[in-house]
Design goal:
Elements lengths: L15 H4 L2 H15 L7 H15 L4 H9 L2 H13 L5 E5 L2 E4 H27 L2 H11 L10 H31 L9 H9 L2 H21 L18 H22 L3
Antiparallel strand pairs: 1-2
Helix pairs in contact: 2-6, 2-7, 2-11, 3-6, 5-6, 7-8, 8-10
């Protein structure tokens, strides 16, 4: 399961979504997530699912790549579903031992699980279609006004860029460690869940040491190249809004108004 995690990785391709300004995509994800939490009718999640499929199709990200992003959180989704299913009071539908399933529990379990899955699928599209550098540049440009309040926006964007660049590196490091442990006879696939969790815990210490070593090497490399967070840096490719970005903002505005109206009307 760990080998199949794709969250945080960039899927290199050429599409309308890939070519959009990162600020537009950041705003799109923000509107998507905020309106998703405004939804009360579970049937409206089908609308969001349709939006997700359309966006993935337009961005030319394969369906298999999208579904792999859910593998890393499948346990969380199952736990969330079961917890809401048996811990929500209401009209009892079934009962076994000390647990009971209610109509309200079924609805809330489906709603919460769907909301988490849709949120992760929508947010993952941002990382699939935006490089860490583009994301950091977009975030820095969008938050540049906060520098008037002495907030270190530049340092924050550098941290975000490094964090996103480290995700595929750490996943690759985990795969190397798992192969090394498997060569020594450790099972990660064909064993019980408890045994699998115990074996995965043995990877934490070498992974931590590897992360610290890589971080130290990165810090020395940045210092050797004269990096200083308190000095402004120029951009080789400055961000400029295109026609497609303006159209996207108009669509986002009307979508946000529509979903907010549905919330107010209790639909």
């Amino acid at each position: 399961m760990i080998r199949d995690i794709t969250i945080g990785q960039y899927y290199a391709n050429t599409s309308v979504v890939h070519n959009m300004d990162p600020r537009t995509k950041l705003m799109g994800v923000l509107v998507y997530v905020l309106t998703l939490f405004l939804v009360k009718n579970p049937l409206l999640y089908l609308v969001y699912l349709g939006i997700v499929f359309v966006l993935y199709h337009v961005s030319k990200v394969p369906l298999s790549f999208m579904l792999k992003g859910l593998k890393g959180i499948i346990i969380l989704l199952i736990f969330t579903f079961c917890f809401r299913l048996i811990c929500t009071p209401g009209n009892v539908v079934a009962k076994f031992w000390i647990f009971q399933i209610t109509e309200e529990g079924i609805i809330k379990a489906i709603s919460l699980t769907s909301r988490i899955a849709l949120m992760i699928l929508g947010a993952s599209l941002l990382s699939y279609t935006t490089t860490p550098k583009e994301m950091a540049d977009g975030l820095g440009k969008a938050l540049s006004g906060l520098e008037k309040f002495h907030i270190p926006v530049h340092d924050m964007t550098v941290i975000v860029m490094i964090a996103f660049r480290f995700i595929p590196i750490l996943l690759e490091e985990i795969n190397v460690l798992m192969d090394a442990q498997a060569a020594r006879g450790v099972e990660f696939e064909k064993c019980s869940v408890l045994k699998k969790c115990k074996n995965v815990l043995t990877l934490l210490m070498p992974l931590f040491m590897s992360t610290v070593r890589r971080s130290s090497d990165l810090a020395m490399a940045m210092e050797a190249r004269g990096y200083s967070g308190d000095k402004p840096t120029s951009k080789m490719y400055p961000l400029v809004y295109q026609k497609r970005d303006r159209i996207a903002y108009v669509v986002l505005f009307f979508f946000a108004v529509l979903m907010t109206s549905l919330r107010i009307c209790h639909v």
